[in-house]
Amino acid sequence: MTFRDIAPIVVLIALIAFVPAFITANTVLNFLVFTLIIALAAQGWNILGGFGGQFSFGHAAFFGTGAYAAALLQVRLGINPWVAFAIGTVVGAAVGWVIGYLSFRSGLRGSYFALVTLAFAEVLRILANAATFTGGAAGVLIKLDVRPGNFQFESRGAFFWIALALVGAVLLLTRWIERSRFGAQLVAVRENEAAAKALGVDTLRVKLGAITVSGAVTAAAGGLYAQYFLYVDANIAYGTWISVEVILAPIVGGLGTVFGPLVGAVALHGLGEITKLAAGSVPGIDLMVFGGLLVAAVAFAPAGILGLMRRSARSRGAARHA
Amino acid sequence: MLEVQNATKRFGGLVAVNQASLKVEAGSITGLIGPNGAGKTTLFTLISGFEKPSEGRVLFEGEDISRDEPHVRARRGIARTFQIVQPFAGLSVLENIAVGAHLRHAKRSDALASAERVGQRVGLGPELDKSASSLTVAGRKRLELARALATEPKLLLLDEVLAGLNPSEIRDIIPVIRAIRDEGVTILMIEHVMQAVMSLCEQVYVLAQGRIIAEGPPADVCDDPKVIEAYLGAGAAERLKREKVHA
């Protein structure tokens, strides 16, 4: 990676980091932290789905695993929350590898892979909802004990910075993937698996690598979620809502791009919040906006918001030349 | 360098390749011809590893590679092109070639530099920054060739790289293929364009209905009555000979 690859990411993150200095309203910070958590989870999905072309409909499996691991390890086993969070991320990677191994080994791709991942997430949701260890349908409450050493903070700003740091780290990770051999091979698998094999790409290994990293990132988002809301249940952690969220953000923002998931998450949730404010208390109005935005993105901007911006920049450039 | 020993491939009841044997000498250009549906491409998939032989063996540099996966064979030094071109449509021409170059170059910058050299060599220089999906048929064929070459193979399997090209495009690409061989890459090519087979190949194998029915220098093989009949039907060789006498 060169300086030019890294600079835009560092500048963007540094700028966003100043937001809590100007905005102190809890509702706004709440919204921002939530959006960053979604963005992080979506960044995870984007590594596998955007770069690798393997569309998972079950990233809740990773999000939930990260969330439950973070919560259960501290509540049931008394492990330090920071350590629990780290372990949750690793467990998410392991779950990713296992799901990947089982489905990619048997050559599942396209809609079959999507269905299998959905099934894994649903099975985990039902198990978490039933088992006593996970607290069953009542879920797990993390005890309120506000200490930085306990991964709980007085101000929401601190949480905002942690979420932002993680998003920034994954932006850098994604940029590295984009510029590496692994990334080139991953994109080759997305574009044409047979051709990739013929060129010496070990497609199984590449896909397993992608789903492992993807699982870890989305699990980190889940862990963050648990730590922020201090509560996890099966329908939150393993619910289909998160599987859908993490697909929507990259599609709207720009599939297989470094900034796509972040841009998409901010656009979706920003617009959702604004409509909620404007339309008052019409229930589900933000979901309708999501739907409309998705249709618009697929119809008019298949490369997402970033693709649209690039295209308009190019056509403006062309107009200048003419 | 490459030896196929009594390879058979069955798809259910269909025997696509039947006890086929062939040898490719290091440094040669060997042709594989035969009528449509003879099993040429299937034989290629057995050599490149996309299918495993039902019976028989494939030896590369004396080692049995019959069970190796395609990417392992690519690492050993076998590269193939696809008859139906398979570009990475969403990538630029240079990025396409770089995927091949990454096999021997871990660093992105090295792979891109190597890809650019290969692209220039096959005549894709002006197209390197274009999207692969914007290439013409001739361009795509060159891209197939470039990607395979970028893996720095010892043996190059060309599956009808000339099909669909017009005569002047064929004239352009034949010297490229010869130059590749002259730099030490052994070539096995499936080809229908006989002009190219005649001018390039030292040795030709003829496959018909899954069997090797003839082998030898191209001129001899074309006069072989078995080969003429495989293409034109039973009795054709006899009839042609009679017509030649009358003429």
Features of this protein?
heterodimer, A: 322 residues, ABC transporter involved in vitamin B12 uptake, BtuC, B: 247 residues, Rossmann fold, six-stranded mixed β-sheet, 10 strands, globular
Please describe the topology of this protein.
The complex is a heterodimer of chains A (322) and B (247).
Chain A: H1 3-17, H2 19-22, H3 26-51, H4 60-77, H5 81-105, H6 110-130, E1 140-141, H7 156-178, H8 181-191, H9 193-198, H10 203-229, E2 231-232, H11 234-237, H12 240-253, H13 260-279, H14 285-300, H15 304-321
Antiparallel strand pairs in A: 1-2
Helix pairs in contact in A: 1-7, 3-7, 3-10, 3-12, 3-13, 4-5, 4-6, 4-10, 5-10, 8-10, 12-13, 12-15, 13-14
Chain B: E1 2-11, E2 14-24, E3 29-33, H1 40-48, E4 55-60, E5 63-64, H2 70-76, E6 78-80, H3 93-101, H4 108-121, H5 137-150, E7 155-159, H6 167-182, E8 186-190, H7 194-200, E9 203-208, E10 211-216, H8 218-223, H9 225-232, H10 236-246
Parallel strand pairs in B: 3-8, 3-9, 6-7, 7-8
Antiparallel strand pairs in B: 1-2, 1-4, 4-5, 9-10
Helix pairs in contact in B: 3-4, 3-5, 4-5
Give the strand tally of chain A: 2
Rg measurement of chain A, Å: 20 Å
Query: What is the overall number of helices of chain A?
Result: 15
Q: State Rg of chain B.
A: 19 Å
CATH topology of chain A: ABC transporter involved in vitamin B12 uptake, BtuC
Name the CATH superfamily assignment of the largest domain in chain B: P-loop containing nucleotide triphosphate hydrolases
List low-confidence stretches of chain B: none
The neighbouring-strand order within the major sheet of chain A is: 1-2
Strand content of chain A: under 5%
Q: Tell me, what is the CATH class of chain A?
A: Mainly Alpha
Terminal CA distance of chain A reads 35 Å
Oligomer: heterodimer
Instruction: Report the top-level CATH class of the largest domain in chain B.
Output: Alpha Beta
Average pLDDT rating of chain B: 93
Task: Examine the coordinates and then state which fold CATH places here, giving the name of the CATH topology of the largest domain in chain B.
Answer: Rossmann fold
Number of strands of chain B: 10
CATH architecture of chain A: Orthogonal Bundle
Largest contact between protein chains?
Answer: A-B, 20 and 31 residues
Calculate the terminal CA-CA distance of chain B, rounded to whole Å.
45 Å
